[in-house]
Design brief:
alpha+beta; 16-stranded antiparallel beta barrel; 722 residues; 29 strands; globular
């Protein structure tokens, strides 16, 4: 989009001209440089007052120093397969070009009188130089006023009565630019937003030109946006081109406009995005054909490039809690010619090479049929039968069932879904750890016989539940956000009574916020909270053991800890936990042994994190570091479910801190980090075998040896962790 004005390219031209007259860099002839002289570093120094952002200056210049990455590489060049970094040669001609580039940048940033000099210092012994670009910005050119007028100075813009509020809102928005330096991108914004306002309201050929009046004595400017709205038009016809496998009416139903509707550039863009979201569409373009008469009607053309109907995809990753993980899927994206999709998917979390003592091993297979148009273009319906085997800290079991999900998606980050799921889980082995309630403890139950306990808890767990979930927010880049907020609430309720082994409602919510502190520095905040409300058959009666009732809810109780949670603790091991007790046969006798811990969980949970995401200088934009402070608490305040030894100590708020190295790679992100427990509980730093022995003998656990190294928790994730 070009900017037409009386001064043409006013800012850069004025800046370069004044800069050439008012400033001249020192002559490099006084410095002995040759073709082998290296450039060690380049820095920037600005005068006091309003400044041009240094990251923008670095991006505008082409000279680059060696950076920290080269120093690290040189230090390890003695290792096999590690070579010395290539030298960065100093080019005096490129330095002069960078001076011109910086003048143009300063002019674009509202400093047309900027003076650019440089200081070159040479290390004669190593034949290398350090360059400092010295920027005297000069007084900024202040934008004093923004005026929007008709292109014909004798005419007046006719604003429809029902659009006056929107027009006033646009004027207030542009008015916020006043009294700031007049930047070139600000002029482009004025032209873009004024033109878009008319094009969104039925004027497809609205045209805006920008005129700038400069008072050089006061360093002030007045911007006039002159608008020619053109003819008001409605959509006369919609033409779909390029479809062969997909029926044209399937494409048309995704458009937010119909024949006879008022033209709107916003709806044209929205329609292109919605057509592009059809899985069978590789590329979609929605526009106005060139050459049609500029009258009261417009024809809209939809050009579609179809994708192959069948798609095979897969991924491989590693997580400290899951070990080696993989997923694979096969999708037919155009079942029946109406863009329905059928997907066969499999996920395997093998647990191989996992860092955690109790890895999450999980194998899942599913089939998903998706109807992309379910009574509305924003709504879709998913039917997903599935089967899943898991072997983790809770149990070894097989679950199978089906989920039915109507999904309403306004945009990628605005959606709501209601899922009805019915399933059955067959449990082959429970993993409880040491768990007490009143005068009865699970250690005794395990010694008496595990089968009796299994019969009490039940090996067939039935579920029938509705889950309402939503996503609300805005992020600049969903994969690695730098700015924005996101909220994800979830509400689950079991019903009807006869189809459920337990009855409960469960609320869970997660909030994320990202604020830029620099071009590549971000402050990230995360908070999650949840509460479980048992009712009906899940409440202990006068003759029921509260321990058994609590254990029947372990599949939905809250836990905390792990690489994506409170990072000072292992997977789900923050809060109430007990030794992972197993029976071991030795000859004719059986003894109980403990290896690590298993989480017990609780009915309530809170966890939060404050993280500073930083770039790593000198090693490229794909490298970063995160410094964090995490906190979390898992507890049960419902007195009807008495449980746990030393529960008070394990149910308090815990804190951890640490750092991570984050790397973007072609196979996915790599995260390597370490968390440190700031206030661990006694159970967090004593051996589970020692704890089992002490509890069995009736000795206090406070006297057990504590291992300081267990205050550290390592995390590693490569690619997706699923």
């Amino acid at each position: 989009m070009s900017i037409e004005s009386r001064v043409g390219a006013l800012l850069p031209a004025l800046g370069v001209a004044l800069g050439l007259v008012l400033s001249a860099g020192p002559c490099l002839a006084q410095i002995d440089v040759d073709a082998s002289t290296e450039l060690r570093s380049i820095g920037f120094r600005q005068a006091k007052g309003p400044r041009v952002p240094e990251p923008a200056m670095r991006e505008a210049t082409t000279l680059r120093g060696r950076g920290a990455g080269a120093a690290i590489q040189s230090a390890f060049a003695w290792l096999p397969f590690v070579s010395k970094p290539e030298p960065v040669l100093f080019d005096p001609r490129e330095l002069q070009r960078d001076v011109v580039r910086l003048r143009r940048l300063c002019a674009d940033e509202g400093f047309p009188r900027a003076r650019i000099r440089y200081d070159v210092r040479k290390d004669d012994e190593h034949n290398r130089v350090d360059v400092t670009m010295i920027v005297d910005q000069g007084p900024p050119l202040i934008l004093r006023d923004v005026r929007i007028e008709a292109a014909d100075s004798a005419a007046t813009l006719a604003i429809p009565e029902d659009e006056r509020r929107g027009w006033e809102k646009l004027q207030r928005s542009l008015g916020k630019m006043k009294n700031d330096p007049m930047r070139r991108q600000g002029l482009a914004r004025i032209e873009r937003e004024v033109g878009a306002w008319w094009q969104e309201r039925g004027h497809p050929y609205a045209r805006t030109t920008i005129e700038v009046e400069v008072d050089s004595s006061r360093n002030e400017a007045i911007v006039q946006a002159r608008v020619d709205p053109g003819t008001f038009a409605r959509v006369s016809d919609v033409v779909v081109e390029g479809t062969s496998a997909i029926r044209p009416d399937v494409v048309e139903r995704e458009l937010p406009f119909r024949e006879g509707d008022r033209y709107s550039s916003k709806k044209i863009s929205e329609g292109q995005r919605d057509v592009q979201s059809i899985q069978m569409v590789r590329l979609a373009l929605v526009d106005l054909p060139a050459g049609q008469p500029r009258d009261s009607t417009v024809e809209v053309r939809v050009r579609v490039t179809e994708a192959e109907p069948r798609l095979v995809s897969g991924a491989l990753g590693f997580g400290s809690e899951t070990g080696i993980a993989a997923d694979a899927s096969w999708t037919h994206r155009n079942v029946g010619g109406r863009a329905q999709s059928l997907t066969f998917a499999g996920v395997a979390q093998t647990g191989w090479l996992a860092i955690d003592d109790n890895p999450d091993t999980r194998y899942r297979g599913s089939v998903t049929l998706k109807e992309p148009y379910f009574f509305d273009r924003h709504a879709s319906l998913l039917i997903t039968p599935f089967v899943e085997f898991r072997d983790d800290v809770q149990d070894r079991s097989l679950q199978y069932g089906v989920d039915l999900t109507p999904l309403y998606q306004f945009s990628p980050l605005y959606s709501v879904a209601l899922t009805y799921g019915i399933s059955r889980r067959d449990v082959y082995e429970y993993r409880f750890g040491d768990f007490t309630s009143g005068d009865v403890d699970l250690l005794t139950l395990l010694q008496q016989g595990a089968q009796a306990l299994l019969d009490t808890l039940g090996t067939g767990i039935r579920k029938s539940q509705f889950t309402l979930t939503a996503t609300v927010g805005s992020l600049d880049e969903p994969a690695m956000p730098h700015h924005g907020v996101l909220f994800r609430p979830s509400l689950l309720v079991t019903t009807p009574e006869g189809l459920n082994s337990s009855e409960y409602s469960r609320f869970d919510g997660a909030f994320f916020a990202y604020a830029p502190l620099g071009r590549r520095t971000t402050l990230a905040v995360r908070a999650t909270a949840g509460r479980l409300f048992p009712f009906g058959k899940s409440l202990p009666g006068p003759n029921d053991d509260p321990t058994i009732k609590f254990l029947q809810l372990r599949d939905v109780t809250f836990t905390a800890g792990g690489s994506n949670d409170v990072r000072g603790w292992g997977n789900r091991l923050l809060g109430p936990k007990f030794p992972d007790i197993r029976s071991e046969e030795s000859g004719d006798t059986t003894r109980l042994v403990a290896e690590g811990y298993v989480p017990v969980g609780g009915f309530q949970r809170f966890a939060g994190s404050i993280e500073l995401q930083l770039p790593l200088p000198g090693v490229g934009p794909n490298w970063g570091a995160n410094v964090f402070l995490d906190a979390g608490r898992v507890w049960t305040s419902d007195d009807r479910f008495s449980h746990g030894i030393y529960a008070g100590e394990q149910e308090r708020m815990f804190y951890s801190t640490g750092a991570e190295l984050a790397i973007r790679t072609p196979v996915g992100p790599i995260r390597l980090g370490a968390g440190y427990k700031l206030n661990p509980s006694t159970v967090d730093v004593v051996d589970s075998a020692d704890l089992l022995e002490a509890v069995t003998a009736g000795r206090p656990i406070e006297d057990l040896p504590k291992h300081k190294r267990w205050r550290w928790q390592m995390h590693l994730a490569i690619g997706s962790s699923f």
